[in-house]
Amino acid sequence: xxxxxxxxxxxxxxxxxxxxxxxxxxxxxxxxxxxxxxxxxxxxxxxxxxxxxxxxxxxxxxxxxxxxxxxxxxxxxxxxxxxxxxxxxxxxxxxxxxxxxxxxxxxxxxxxxxxxxxxxxxxxxxxxxxxxxxxxxxxxxxxxxxxxxxxxxxxxxxxxxxxxxxxxxxxxxxxxxxxxxxxxxxxxxxxxxxxxxxxxxxxxxxxxxxxxxxxxxxxxxxxxxxxxxxxxxxxxxxxxxxxxxxxxxxxxxxxxxxxxxxxxxxxxxxxxxxxxxxxxxxxxxxxxxxxxxxxxxxxxxxxxxxx
Length: 307
Hints:
This protein is α/β, with parallel strands linked by helices. The strands form two sheets. The chain has a six-stranded mixed beta sheet with strand order 2-3-1-4-5-6, sandwiched between helices. The protein has a three-stranded mixed beta sheet with strand order 7-8-9. The chain is globular, with a radius of gyration of 20 Å. The protein folds into two domains: 9-175, P-loop containing nucleotide triphosphate hydrolases (Rossmann fold); 193-305, GMP Synthetase, Chain A, domain 3 (2-Layer Sandwich), CATH 3.30.300.20. Helices cover 36% and strands 22% of the residues. Helix 6 crosses helix 8. It has nine helices and nine strands. Keywords: Cell membrane, Cytoplasm, GTP-binding, Membrane, Nucleotide-binding, Ribosome biogenesis, RNA-binding, rRNA-binding. GTP binds at residues 17-24, 64-68, 128-131. Belongs to the TRAFAC class TrmE-Era-EngA-EngB-Septin-like GTPase superfamily. Era GTPase family.
Protein backbone atom coordinates (compact mmCIF):
# COMPACT_ATOMS: atom_id res chain seq x y z
CA UNK A 1 0.00 0.00 0.00
CA UNK A 2 1.24 3.49 -0.86
CA UNK A 3 2.16 5.85 1.96
CA UNK A 4 2.69 9.58 2.43
CA UNK A 5 6.47 9.40 1.85
CA UNK A 6 6.39 8.47 -1.81
CA UNK A 7 4.63 9.89 -4.83
CA UNK A 8 1.23 8.55 -3.83
CA UNK A 9 -1.95 10.41 -4.67
CA UNK A 10 -5.52 9.94 -3.47
CA UNK A 11 -8.71 11.84 -4.13
CA UNK A 12 -12.44 11.75 -4.74
CA UNK A 13 -13.97 11.86 -8.22
CA UNK A 14 -17.71 12.48 -8.63
CA UNK A 15 -19.53 11.23 -11.70
CA UNK A 16 -22.60 13.35 -12.43
CA UNK A 17 -25.09 13.48 -15.27
CA UNK A 18 -28.64 12.69 -16.28
CA UNK A 19 -30.15 9.31 -15.39
CA UNK A 20 -28.85 6.55 -17.69
CA UNK A 21 -25.82 8.57 -18.84
CA UNK A 22 -23.63 5.53 -18.10
CA UNK A 23 -22.18 6.57 -14.74
CA UNK A 24 -22.58 3.13 -13.14
CA UNK A 25 -21.15 1.37 -16.19
CA UNK A 26 -18.12 3.67 -16.14
CA UNK A 27 -17.61 3.17 -12.40
CA UNK A 28 -17.71 -0.62 -12.78
CA UNK A 29 -15.29 -0.44 -15.72
CA UNK A 30 -12.87 1.80 -13.78
CA UNK A 31 -12.95 -0.30 -10.63
CA UNK A 32 -12.89 -3.63 -12.45
CA UNK A 33 -15.72 -5.11 -10.39
CA UNK A 34 -19.44 -4.69 -10.18
CA UNK A 35 -20.16 -2.30 -7.32
CA UNK A 36 -22.95 -0.23 -8.83
CA UNK A 37 -26.07 -1.72 -10.35
CA UNK A 38 -26.54 -1.31 -14.09
CA UNK A 39 -29.98 -1.72 -15.65
CA UNK A 40 -32.00 -0.47 -18.58
CA UNK A 41 -34.19 1.48 -16.15
CA UNK A 42 -33.36 5.10 -15.33
CA UNK A 43 -32.75 6.38 -11.80
CA UNK A 44 -31.59 3.01 -10.45
CA UNK A 45 -28.63 4.36 -8.46
CA UNK A 46 -29.87 5.66 -5.13
CA UNK A 47 -26.91 5.83 -2.76
CA UNK A 48 -23.57 7.52 -3.33
CA UNK A 49 -21.60 4.37 -4.05
CA UNK A 50 -17.85 4.73 -3.86
CA UNK A 51 -15.69 2.47 -5.95
CA UNK A 52 -11.92 2.50 -5.54
CA UNK A 53 -9.58 2.25 -8.55
CA UNK A 54 -5.79 2.02 -8.49
CA UNK A 55 -3.71 3.59 -11.28
CA UNK A 56 0.04 3.48 -10.62
CA UNK A 57 0.68 5.30 -7.32
CA UNK A 58 -2.78 6.87 -7.35
CA UNK A 59 -5.92 5.73 -5.58
CA UNK A 60 -9.04 7.17 -7.22
CA UNK A 61 -12.18 7.03 -5.10
CA UNK A 62 -15.28 7.31 -7.30
CA UNK A 63 -18.53 8.74 -6.02
CA UNK A 64 -21.25 7.35 -8.26
CA UNK A 65 -24.12 9.75 -7.73
CA UNK A 66 -27.79 9.30 -8.59
CA UNK A 67 -28.79 10.84 -11.92
CA UNK A 68 -29.70 14.52 -11.77
CA UNK A 69 -33.26 15.12 -12.92
CA UNK A 70 -36.32 17.18 -11.97
CA UNK A 71 -37.48 15.69 -8.66
CA UNK A 72 -41.16 14.99 -8.05
CA UNK A 73 -41.25 12.89 -4.87
CA UNK A 74 -39.40 12.84 -1.55
CA UNK A 75 -37.18 9.97 -2.74
CA UNK A 76 -36.36 11.89 -5.94
CA UNK A 77 -35.42 15.02 -3.97
CA UNK A 78 -33.19 13.03 -1.60
CA UNK A 79 -31.45 11.37 -4.58
CA UNK A 80 -30.77 14.68 -6.37
CA UNK A 81 -29.49 16.28 -3.15
CA UNK A 82 -27.16 13.28 -2.70
CA UNK A 83 -25.88 13.76 -6.26
CA UNK A 84 -25.01 17.42 -5.74
CA UNK A 85 -23.53 16.59 -2.33
CA UNK A 86 -21.21 14.08 -3.99
CA UNK A 87 -20.01 16.69 -6.49
CA UNK A 88 -19.53 19.37 -3.82
CA UNK A 89 -17.18 17.12 -1.82
CA UNK A 90 -15.10 15.86 -4.75
CA UNK A 91 -11.60 16.85 -5.94
CA UNK A 92 -12.70 16.34 -9.55
CA UNK A 93 -16.20 16.20 -11.02
CA UNK A 94 -16.81 14.45 -14.33
CA UNK A 95 -19.99 15.42 -16.16
CA UNK A 96 -21.15 12.52 -18.33
CA UNK A 97 -23.21 13.34 -21.41
CA UNK A 98 -24.71 10.80 -23.80
CA UNK A 99 -23.35 11.38 -27.31
CA UNK A 100 -26.66 10.71 -29.05
CA UNK A 101 -28.58 13.08 -26.75
CA UNK A 102 -26.04 15.89 -26.59
CA UNK A 103 -27.00 19.20 -25.05
CA UNK A 104 -30.42 18.08 -23.80
CA UNK A 105 -32.69 20.07 -21.53
CA UNK A 106 -31.41 18.01 -18.57
CA UNK A 107 -27.75 18.71 -19.42
CA UNK A 108 -28.58 22.42 -19.82
CA UNK A 109 -30.06 22.36 -16.32
CA UNK A 110 -26.94 20.71 -14.86
CA UNK A 111 -24.65 23.23 -16.58
CA UNK A 112 -26.75 26.12 -15.28
CA UNK A 113 -26.58 24.69 -11.75
CA UNK A 114 -22.78 24.26 -12.02
CA UNK A 115 -22.44 27.89 -13.13
CA UNK A 116 -24.61 29.13 -10.24
CA UNK A 117 -23.07 26.92 -7.53
CA UNK A 118 -19.47 26.19 -8.48
CA UNK A 119 -18.12 22.94 -7.00
CA UNK A 120 -14.69 23.14 -5.37
CA UNK A 121 -12.79 20.76 -7.66
CA UNK A 122 -11.96 20.68 -11.37
CA UNK A 123 -14.76 19.82 -13.78
CA UNK A 124 -14.13 17.58 -16.79
CA UNK A 125 -16.47 16.43 -19.55
CA UNK A 126 -16.88 12.81 -20.64
CA UNK A 127 -18.98 12.24 -23.74
CA UNK A 128 -20.20 8.66 -23.48
CA UNK A 129 -21.66 6.18 -26.02
CA UNK A 130 -19.55 7.72 -28.80
CA UNK A 131 -20.17 4.70 -31.04
CA UNK A 132 -23.80 5.87 -31.41
CA UNK A 133 -23.03 9.01 -33.47
CA UNK A 134 -20.79 9.91 -36.41
CA UNK A 135 -17.54 11.85 -35.96
CA UNK A 136 -18.79 15.18 -37.39
CA UNK A 137 -21.76 15.31 -35.03
CA UNK A 138 -19.51 14.34 -32.13
CA UNK A 139 -17.03 17.13 -32.82
CA UNK A 140 -19.78 19.74 -33.28
CA UNK A 141 -21.41 18.71 -30.02
CA UNK A 142 -18.09 18.73 -28.16
CA UNK A 143 -17.46 22.29 -29.34
CA UNK A 144 -20.95 23.37 -28.33
CA UNK A 145 -20.63 21.89 -24.83
CA UNK A 146 -17.21 23.52 -24.30
CA UNK A 147 -18.62 26.87 -25.42
CA UNK A 148 -21.34 26.52 -22.80
CA UNK A 149 -18.95 25.64 -19.96
CA UNK A 150 -15.22 25.92 -19.36
CA UNK A 151 -14.28 22.25 -18.83
CA UNK A 152 -10.66 21.59 -17.88
CA UNK A 153 -10.56 18.54 -20.17
CA UNK A 154 -12.86 16.62 -22.53
CA UNK A 155 -12.87 12.85 -23.06
CA UNK A 156 -14.66 10.76 -25.68
CA UNK A 157 -15.53 7.37 -24.24
CA UNK A 158 -17.62 4.26 -24.51
CA UNK A 159 -18.00 3.06 -20.92
CA UNK A 160 -19.65 -0.15 -22.08
CA UNK A 161 -16.91 -1.09 -24.56
CA UNK A 162 -14.02 0.45 -22.63
CA UNK A 163 -12.95 2.90 -25.36
CA UNK A 164 -11.20 5.99 -23.98
CA UNK A 165 -11.66 4.82 -20.38
CA UNK A 166 -7.92 4.20 -19.79
CA UNK A 167 -7.09 7.76 -20.93
CA UNK A 168 -9.68 9.18 -18.52
CA UNK A 169 -8.42 7.05 -15.62
CA UNK A 170 -4.77 8.03 -16.27
CA UNK A 171 -5.70 11.72 -16.39
CA UNK A 172 -7.65 11.45 -13.13
CA UNK A 173 -4.70 9.66 -11.50
CA UNK A 174 -2.43 12.61 -12.40
CA UNK A 175 -4.88 15.30 -11.29
CA UNK A 176 -5.96 14.08 -7.84
CA UNK A 177 -4.04 15.52 -4.84
CA UNK A 178 -0.76 14.15 -3.48
CA UNK A 179 -1.21 12.23 -0.25
CA UNK A 180 -1.57 8.81 1.37
CA UNK A 181 -4.15 6.33 0.15
CA UNK A 182 -7.56 6.51 1.80
CA UNK A 183 -8.50 2.81 1.67
CA UNK A 184 -6.70 -0.53 1.97
CA UNK A 185 -5.50 -1.75 -1.42
CA UNK A 186 -7.92 -4.68 -1.58
CA UNK A 187 -11.02 -2.65 -0.69
CA UNK A 188 -12.99 -1.80 -3.81
CA UNK A 189 -15.99 -0.13 -2.23
CA UNK A 190 -16.79 1.45 1.10
CA UNK A 191 -20.42 0.39 1.04
CA UNK A 192 -21.09 -2.27 3.64
CA UNK A 193 -21.56 -5.70 2.10
CA UNK A 194 -25.15 -5.71 3.35
CA UNK A 195 -25.92 -2.72 1.12
CA UNK A 196 -24.07 -4.13 -1.91
CA UNK A 197 -26.05 -7.38 -1.51
CA UNK A 198 -29.33 -5.41 -1.32
CA UNK A 199 -28.38 -3.46 -4.47
CA UNK A 200 -27.70 -6.71 -6.35
CA UNK A 201 -31.13 -8.07 -5.46
CA UNK A 202 -32.77 -4.75 -6.39
CA UNK A 203 -31.04 -4.92 -9.77
CA UNK A 204 -32.47 -8.41 -10.39
CA UNK A 205 -35.95 -7.19 -9.41
CA UNK A 206 -35.61 -4.25 -11.81
CA UNK A 207 -34.50 -6.50 -14.67
CA UNK A 208 -37.19 -9.12 -14.09
CA UNK A 209 -40.14 -6.80 -13.55
CA UNK A 210 -40.94 -4.51 -16.43
CA UNK A 211 -43.77 -2.55 -14.84
CA UNK A 212 -43.25 0.76 -13.01
CA UNK A 213 -42.99 -1.34 -9.86
CA UNK A 214 -39.21 -1.06 -9.26
CA UNK A 215 -39.49 2.59 -8.25
CA UNK A 216 -41.90 1.61 -5.51
CA UNK A 217 -39.80 -1.07 -3.88
CA UNK A 218 -36.66 -1.22 -1.81
CA UNK A 219 -34.50 -4.09 -0.58
CA UNK A 220 -32.86 -4.34 2.83
CA UNK A 221 -30.44 -6.96 4.11
CA UNK A 222 -31.96 -7.86 7.46
CA UNK A 223 -29.41 -10.47 8.64
CA UNK A 224 -25.93 -11.55 7.61
CA UNK A 225 -24.75 -14.71 9.34
CA UNK A 226 -21.25 -16.05 8.75
CA UNK A 227 -21.00 -19.84 8.84
CA UNK A 228 -18.15 -22.09 9.96
CA UNK A 229 -17.71 -23.57 6.46
CA UNK A 230 -16.90 -20.11 5.02
CA UNK A 231 -20.34 -19.57 3.50
CA UNK A 232 -22.88 -16.98 4.71
CA UNK A 233 -26.63 -16.91 5.18
CA UNK A 234 -28.16 -13.65 3.96
CA UNK A 235 -31.78 -12.72 4.75
CA UNK A 236 -33.31 -9.86 2.80
CA UNK A 237 -36.67 -8.12 2.83
CA UNK A 238 -38.24 -6.60 -0.28
CA UNK A 239 -40.55 -3.77 0.80
CA UNK A 240 -43.39 -2.84 -1.56
CA UNK A 241 -46.12 -0.23 -1.28
CA UNK A 242 -49.15 -2.35 -2.27
CA UNK A 243 -50.54 -5.88 -1.94
CA UNK A 244 -50.78 -6.14 -5.72
CA UNK A 245 -47.04 -5.50 -6.00
CA UNK A 246 -46.31 -8.41 -3.68
CA UNK A 247 -48.19 -10.77 -5.99
CA UNK A 248 -46.24 -9.53 -9.02
CA UNK A 249 -42.89 -10.13 -7.29
CA UNK A 250 -43.87 -13.59 -6.04
CA UNK A 251 -45.21 -14.62 -9.45
CA UNK A 252 -47.22 -17.72 -10.30
CA UNK A 253 -46.43 -20.47 -7.76
CA UNK A 254 -43.57 -18.27 -6.49
CA UNK A 255 -41.60 -18.70 -9.73
CA UNK A 256 -40.61 -15.04 -10.14
CA UNK A 257 -39.18 -14.62 -6.64
CA UNK A 258 -37.32 -17.95 -6.98
CA UNK A 259 -35.72 -16.78 -10.24
CA UNK A 260 -34.75 -13.41 -8.76
CA UNK A 261 -33.35 -15.08 -5.64
CA UNK A 262 -31.28 -17.52 -7.72
CA UNK A 263 -29.85 -14.77 -9.94
CA UNK A 264 -28.96 -12.57 -6.98
CA UNK A 265 -27.45 -15.48 -5.02
CA UNK A 266 -25.27 -16.53 -7.97
CA UNK A 267 -23.98 -12.99 -8.54
CA UNK A 268 -23.32 -12.36 -4.85
CA UNK A 269 -21.50 -15.71 -4.52
CA UNK A 270 -19.35 -14.86 -7.55
CA UNK A 271 -18.68 -11.33 -6.25
CA UNK A 272 -17.55 -12.61 -2.83
CA UNK A 273 -15.85 -15.77 -4.11
CA UNK A 274 -17.75 -18.02 -1.69
CA UNK A 275 -21.10 -19.74 -1.23
CA UNK A 276 -24.04 -17.57 -0.21
CA UNK A 277 -27.40 -18.88 1.02
CA UNK A 278 -29.92 -16.14 0.16
CA UNK A 279 -33.45 -15.96 1.56
CA UNK A 280 -35.92 -13.33 0.31
CA UNK A 281 -39.15 -12.19 1.93
CA UNK A 282 -41.64 -9.72 0.45
CA UNK A 283 -43.45 -7.36 2.85
CA UNK A 284 -46.09 -4.72 2.18
CA UNK A 285 -45.34 -1.34 3.79
CA UNK A 286 -47.69 1.23 2.21
CA UNK A 287 -45.71 4.23 3.51
CA UNK A 288 -42.11 3.06 3.11
CA UNK A 289 -41.37 6.06 0.87
CA UNK A 290 -42.06 8.28 3.90
CA UNK A 291 -40.01 6.31 6.46
CA UNK A 292 -36.66 7.80 7.53
CA UNK A 293 -35.23 4.36 8.34
CA UNK A 294 -35.66 3.16 4.73
CA UNK A 295 -33.66 6.16 3.48
CA UNK A 296 -30.87 5.47 5.97
CA UNK A 297 -30.61 1.90 4.63
CA UNK A 298 -30.14 3.35 1.12
CA UNK A 299 -27.42 5.74 2.26
CA UNK A 300 -29.67 8.77 1.74
CA UNK A 301 -30.74 11.48 4.15
CA UNK A 302 -34.51 11.56 4.78
CA UNK A 303 -34.34 15.33 5.43
CA UNK A 304 -32.92 15.89 1.94
CA UNK A 305 -36.30 14.86 0.57
CA UNK A 306 -38.13 17.80 2.17
CA UNK A 307 -39.76 20.03 -0.40
